[in-house]
Amino acid sequence: MDVQQLFSVRGKVALVTGGSRGIGLMIATGFAAGGARVYVAARKQDEVDAAVKQLSAHGEAIGLVADLSTQLGTRALADDIAKREPRLHVLVNNAGANWGAPLAEYPESGWDKVMALNVKAVFDLTRFLLPRLEAAAEPGDPARVINVGSIDGIQVPVLETYAYSASKAAVHHLSRVLARKLAPNVTVNAIAPGPFESKMMAETLRRFGDAIRKSCPLGRIGEPEDMAGIALYLASRAGAYVTGAVIPVDGGIATTK
Q1: What is the pLDDT of residue 140?
Q2: Which of 77, 111, 136, 238 could form a cystine bridge with 143, CB 3.0-4.6 A?
Q3: Span 167-188, average pLDDT
Q4: Domain extent listing, the chain
Q5: Cβ atoms of residues 145 and 188 within 8 Å
């Protein structure tokens, strides 16, 4: 058995949404360093350019500007990929939003924004890119969809982020439903991150970082290698027989209580 080949993504084509920073950039870095051609999509051109510059130090990276908050924007990204690539081996649905507010004051606009980006865009982009994913499938090595959920979709969050936690629980179950529907040519799994250094988590870690570390059985915040590692596993031959799974990557926070 060639273990290096078992965990290799060399030669694969991957798209990572929300890939210009945070967890998306961690995953994209792992793929680029592993020899994949990585497309990263984000809303702002300057952030896309900065990410591509950083990723290019590790491997091949291409930036795309996309707004996935609407179906029109999601379709445009899928069409852009289709023009560039006959096959897409890995789709990482990572782009997301959060909104916190007290229950009585929680705005409809915040709920709609979070649900549209965190759930609907995952569904739409997956189905729009399905022809390219199916074209990449080979016997014993299906194409992969990796959806980024959250441990807040597993446990009740401390903060009042009602739409976010509900949306991530929806992503987890949508992953299971799509896993059944798209087999055997495409696997669909969800990663449920715990605390990682990211823009979305920055304020939470500033306010509660010490308490979070104390509550974590492994005693630390997640690092880029932790997120790259689980994504490489799911995208490589090593993860070819895994589908419909929700995998917490949280140091044991949500799974040892």
Answers
A1: 94
A2: 136
A3: 98
A4: 3-249
A5: yes
